[in-house]
Fold Lysosomal acid phosphatase.
Amino acid sequence: MAARSGRRWISPLGLLVLICGQILAAVHVAQARQLRFVTVVYRHGDRSPVRAYPKDEHQESAWPQGFGQLTQVGMKQHWDLGQALRARYKGFLNESYDRREIYVRSTDVDRTLMSAEANLAGLYPPEGSQVFNPNISWQPIPVHTLPDSEERLLKFPILPCPKYLKLQEETRRSPEYVNKTRDNMEFLQMVANNTGLKDCSLESVWTISDILFCESKHNLSLPSWATKEVLERLVELKDFSFRFLFGIIEQEQKARLQGGVLVSQILKNMTAAAHNASDGLKFIAYSTHDTTLGALQMALDVYNGKQAPYASCHIFELYEESSGNFTVEMYFRNDSTRPPYPLTLPGCVHSCPLETFQGLLDPIIAKDWEKECQLSGPINDKEVIVGLAVSGCILFFLILLLLTVLFRQKSQPVGYRHVPGIGDDQS
């Protein structure tokens, strides 16, 4: 048969064989690629405000459990997220709870602990032998935490850190911060006058935005000065305050001292899983705050400029490819009505090779956090204590020597000398 105008002709049978071959190849690749490890970092659910402003008519008594507590709306949000994670990882995680597969850690705050518990209720509804009470569709699953004084992974900003505080002072002198303050000076003064706050700055005004947001979401009346335009401007300034914490200037340096700490731990966990050193662990969940997600995403340079909403979730997935290599994919769920959207680490593709992922993040990983923060480490503290002890001993011996010399001088015989007033006739 003659060739067709320079194009290769394929018979219908050949075309069918080619298509089937491509389908089988795609199926083989899909089967060969395996999800090996997952880390999720989520914000707590809906809560009451953490405080009220002085002139607020809705004080702590307006909230059933007081300030800063998870509401029933927040509980439902995290139960829904748990159900979404259950559906997403069906076939990867066991259908019923297996303590070897999952580890959950939370900050030591009521709302994050309760969010983790509600999330697990949605992720692992009890079935079969795990039902301990037929009237309760829930089972206890451990949530680990550390006291606030020891928390150095999930609550940001991590303090004390003198170097970070110095960077914040530099940020306050930056043109963007100075101009933002100048442009909003009159607005901030208006807010201060209406709320009764003595200090209302770019760094503190977020609390007013938060209070009014919580009150509006729970159908509490807002003051007349809190117009739509005012609320929108407060949200803008609130988002700016997150950038102040972890960006604006020296973002990489701030990341090394803040969000990079969490990034480093996530990388260690993924590396352990890639080397089969995770002892069967497949899934780690961190129950945290908006500042945690802000610090994390600014360290990764994928922050969208907006405060992370309630029950939002940053996902890291580690895949083993058919070649035996590993890739990392990131997703962010910030809308419960839509699937998580993909995030791409700058400098890589969405499905980023693990080694490349690690290499790109190396600049934001502190090798010695305490040293970079300019804190005295345990070794330096020991040296100071030893130095003080040695100095004290030397001082003691010098005093002892001085007293000995003085005592010897007094004990020696005194030669003839005239002492006025003794033995003389004086009035």
Summary: The longest strand covers residues 34-43. The two ends are 153 Å apart (CA to CA).
